[in-house]
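Re: folding output
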Amino acid sequence: MNYRSIKDLNEIILKRLSIIPRDIDLIVGVPRSGMLPANLLALYLNRPYTDIDSFLKGHVYKAGARGQFINIDAIKKVLVVDDSIASGGALREVKERLKDQAEKFKIEYAAIYVAAGKERDADYYFETVPTPRYFQWNIFNHTSLSKACFDIDGVLCVDPTPDQNDDGEKYRSFILNAAPLYLPGSKIGTLVTSRLEKYREETEVWLEKHGVQYDKLVMLDLPDAKARQRLNNHGQHKANEFSESQYSLFVESELPQALEINRITKKPVFCTETFSMVYDSQSLLYNIKSGRHLPILRKVALKLRDIIKGKKSTSLVPSSKSFSAKQF
């Protein structure tokens, strides 16, 4: 599995910006995933920018101006940009849509990421990235989420505040009315949460209300929050379900638990706290310690290292939703 963040996208565009010729008059983004890289290219090259539908209607925004259009008759060379090429089917559809425009403009095509063997499908590409792959800007709409496990609090919805987390009526009200965060556009395989089994009905009501589709909901079968705190196995609980499944991705809200799930299962874990993919928790700890990642992640890693070395317990997480990068 290969993952690219928005930061990765920006860096590869800047690194290989020189491959784009400077006689381009207009940059056109392929909705929706191609809009982000197209906009970045237009900004860095100081060229007008639009989307395919607007281009076909003759609506093109002037570079460096707000709300000002340019005369499309002055455009000669157009660069159509998408974020990626996998099979090449989407690009063929775009070319079919624009075939009549070839009489008016010289149209070339660019993709930031291409699958191996598809490098010649576009006139310009920035990096070869094998499939399967996930991108930060569309990970929650990926069709393979049906083969993924998802946390709930901090992923699908906000975390409860300390006041709301009373294991009583306030918490029940929170579950029913929690503000949504990252609602997927595709069906999820299994929801794995540290919420207690006694709150299943309220959780299912919220999921239905927000149109979250899933195959299974796994909760902690414990009597109360105190029992959950004593057990303190949030990462292990999630890792157990992930290990027993044939799924290849877990989406977790907190970095420490993401590292623990990966350490136990040896499978990729996507963390919404940092919007990063954890492939190898031990290597990640080393890289962060070496200063190759953000300072806040380095502090979290050092804390986790101390926990691993100083305690016999397999759990890396002191307590539910209390061990956060924001603490350091």
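--- second protein (sequence, then structure) ---
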Amino acid sequence: MAITAAQVKALREETGAGMMDCKKALTETDGDMEAAKDWLRKKGISKAEKKEGRTAAEGLSRVVADGDEAVIVEINAETDFVAKNDKFLALLDKTIETLKQYKPGDLAAALETKIEDGTLNDAFINATAIIGEKIKLRRFEIVNKLADQHFGLYMHNGGQISALVVLQGGDDQVAKEMAMQVASMNPTYVSRDEMPADVIAHEKEILLEQMNNDPAMANKPDNVKEKIVEGRLSKNLEELCLVDQVFFLDQDKKVGQYLKEKNAEVVKFVKFKVGEGIEKKVDDFAAEVAAMMK
């Protein structure tokens, strides 16, 4: 299968690996992007696991709560200047108002929601025409809590990151601290109980392949490899699980320990980082990749 410059560029930006390594990975996996990522990880080449998803778009996120309901939303634009544009901010407010009022079930339903001047989608089209940049509603979530639960809300850097936590027990302050933890430490799950078995098995497979590709480890007995892999796996899972992370306000405690002291439990969290996982066009780099492919 012929590998294109665009494929190499996309894999390079997602993994941080070298261009020739990306080309080889795609060649070895017949252009399968996900398989190529795994190939790079198994060879110990990819830097992706040490990074959060690549931030490659601009705009704002926001989280608001009213009583037992909260809304978290992300709207993207082409440049960061738009975040200061009054019309963009008005569209953000209008979007949140619409989501709160009509509670659409998904993105398509949200855009089709009728407002005073057409649909919400029409509002985005109009904003694009007026502002001169593509404006897009990327994602949102409407979260409800019970009367005896607490919302924790936190927005970092004016809305570049928004985090929302639902807390059982504790108080509003603990809930806010958990939202700050989520925003700063980027967990994927509340605890290991939430982690699908196939996710754990996949991580273990990657670590084992990394070890087998390490000359210093390749000849070690299987039982030794297994112990090393289990240790590394446990460390990786700690980073993924909120309750296993080090508490950002007290480096001597894990989040789970702090929550226990406060008689609290995180029920749910949502985090949006603006542009996370969206590829951003970089003209010079694209030209460099194209030249490499010749």
